[in-house]
Amino acid sequence: MSAGSRGDVAPFTGLGHGLVRAGHEVTLVTHGCFADLVSGSGVGFHALPVDPRAELESARGQRLHRSTTGAGKIIRLVALTRALVGRLSDDMIAAARSSDVLLVSGSLGPLGYAVAEGLDLPSMGVHLQPLHPTREFAPPVTGVRSWGPAVNRAAGHGVNLAAEQVFAETVRTLRSRLGLPPLGSVAAHRARERRAWPVQHGFSPLVVRRPRDWRRGLDVSGYWWPYDGEDARLPSALRDFLDAGPAPVFVGLGSATVPDPRGLSAEVVRALRSAGLRGVIQRGWGELRADGDDMFTVGEVPHSVLFPRMAAVVHHAGAGTTAAGLRAGVPAVPVPVQFDEGFWAARLVSLGVSPGSLALRGLRAERLAQALVRATTEPSYRRRARDLAERLRAEDGVAPVAEAIGRLGG
Hints:
Blueprint: H1 10-21, E1 27-31, E2 44-48, H2 52-57, H3 59-65, H4 70-84, H5 89-97, E3 102-105, H6 109-118, E4 123-127, H7 149-177, H8 185-194, E5 199-201, E6 218-220, H9 236-243, E7 249-252, H10 261-274, E8 279-282, E9 295-298, H11 303-306, E10 312-315, H12 319-328, E11 332-334, H13 341-350, H14 365-377, H15 379-393, H16 398-408
Parallel strand pairs: 1-2, 3-4, 4-5, 5-6, 7-8, 7-10, 8-9, 10-11
């Protein structure tokens, strides 16, 4: 069960496909607009209501991307999520009633756990970010690297309790409906922790090492690569463009929206041309685009096939796109937009596969061009990226989840 943007869903298509191959019957429960992502994978689909892109394009969603601070974005996201989450519970319950085990993403944690408890089903968290408090780094959603050990851990608890409040009203109604005793959001969170509710994390320990102060039951399994089909291919026109010249640079912001798509697109094109590079520009939800023989604008294409042919990738540093770039073994220039993206951008820099991250607000062609020149001409970035990619491709992120399901009795 997962909710959110494409990046909150795509990794679970790969996890689901791997579990199908391990002998399980798997259903992905998420927004109906993502049904095509499981096509051909052997994974079933149960649709949840709410179209996340439509919500971001609504008046309420537009206020989110106009926020000038991380705190402002979080406040508006909390309000948006609280208004929508109640619409998900009916279909979550319906899907759970025909299930033996529930795997719940971080975006639905409190709600999914309540469904599992109410139906007396074993369950496990499957998180794409390190959400539990730790002394080793600040909560990823804050976009801050560290406030020091004590504050990092305290802030982690604060962020988690704030997240519980987003679901509090819906969980309270759900518990009553399923015959569970009343339980406040703080008490519910503490109960999960006392029971050491198991959580598998879908990123590599080579990218984020398991914090040493995490409790038992919190494990880092490795990446769950999105299912792109048995014979994923790029559109013929894109293949022709790639074959017609030197490796271009990918630029995309995934599901992030931007206040001035035309202006940002112009800055990106100027930067690429100033650096002497061709570009593949992904429209994404921000509606970026570029014209000219040296530029190619694309919609959704499998990153697993496209990224290995790039000289570098410029992206918003979402968890999934960050993983795809690392898997491809190409240098990165992250342009984090919001929430946990600053955390992943900092990881790319510390891993030595990026010369540095750039802020989206006020992004100028000159700075982006400088970063691109470094990323594409200084050999250390590509060398480190290739070395890390080779090690990541040797990992199996699905096997630990399958083993954990066995321990649940599923």
